[in-house]
Amino acid sequence: MRYDGTHPTWRQERSSVKIEMTPERPTEFKVWYRPQFISNVCHICKAAPGNESCTCSGCGLVSYCSRRHLEEDEDDHEDICDALKGVTELLGSKRAHDKAYLLGPDQWREFRLGVANLCSKQLGRPLMPWETEVCLYPPHCATCHKFCNAAERCTECHSINWCCSQHKPKQHAEHCRQLSLIRQILQRKVHVIKSPQLTGVPAEMSALLPEGGDIVTYSLLTEIATSPLTIFQQLTVSENATVHIIGPEPHFEANNLSKWEIFLFNLLPSVLSLTLNFVGPEIGPLPPRKINKNGRTLDFTFHQDLYHDFANKEFASTPSLICALNPGLYRSQGFNGQDSWQDTIDAMFKHRDVPVLVTAYTKKEIGMDHERIKKQVPQAKTIVPPSPNPFSSLRPLMNFVSDDYSPVIFKNAYYTVLTA
């Protein structure tokens, strides 16, 4: 089965690398899901709209496949519904987003963020991720932002609305299958994926798709494999190697640790010792781990520090590679609402000739990250300019930062490499 989406790293022909399932007790990767909102589909089961579909009469934004699922969700939905009604009263409009009509792309994003912030103030607490998504992805026209009824949406992916045929996004055909895949993944909720056995080094991510493979399972596998494979292509081979991974997410870089063995360590047979230092405030105090394999060792250490604090500690050795995966360096606000990136960027380039790998979700973001680095560290040399990543995740995610360009994004989709 071939996926013919529009992600920049898809190729017409698959790599020739042979993929087999490990014959004896293959490693099982666990997939974690959180509640997620998708406009127009049932918030409980993600079913497409049908004859019994209904929408919350309070906020008018959350849909259900039946009255039963609406009633099942009443307790969880109550807070955000009341907050949205409060925002509507505050703005003096029929619906929370009505005054966004005809705003430009940047103003439309600012308006939706404003609705989310007002809802948070109404509730006196931070919004849960799915509540934020209700505010950021309402069923409004993708072009003029007018509220759309149930009949004014794509009947394939159900995720994009337009108030008239002239306002249908010109590129929607390219993204429709990706949006459909988001819903399929959340509907099926595959929780366990068996690791493949690579019989060679893959040239690109599509090499992980076996003939007749399932696209849902495959897309989830690429999200697991993307970080180690992205690092693999930039790591200089030596007997002993150390990689600093900055700002890891607990449910992305720092989970399914066996992926680092399968998609990185096993592909570096001449490396006798590989140490991965995970450094970031969100990582939590975790004990170190060690894997011994045929006289070779793979070590994991976890440091609940900002990177510039970690880098100044005596035990922090000079790394072989420094990585920041999807960090958003261009943002002026980071951890705890402060610009912690300024000191971290300086620390990333304190070691002469050590390559620094940065990835991003979009072409726009990698360009802005690269620009900030060059502005802050003028002496930094670009080894690889901002480019599409052949080992990008191919699991589509909803895009907010540049949704006027594309409604979907992918982890590690673009990358750049620099050195001091």
From TrEMBL:
PROSITE patterns the record matches: ZF_MYND_1
InterPro entries xrefs: Mss51-like_C, Mss51_Znf, Znf_MYND
GO MF term (any one): zinc ion binding
Domain MYND-type: 42-81
This protein's UniProt keywords: Metal-binding, Zinc, Zinc-finger
Pfam family, one: MSS51_C
Name the UniProt record assigns to this protein: MYND-type domain-containing protein
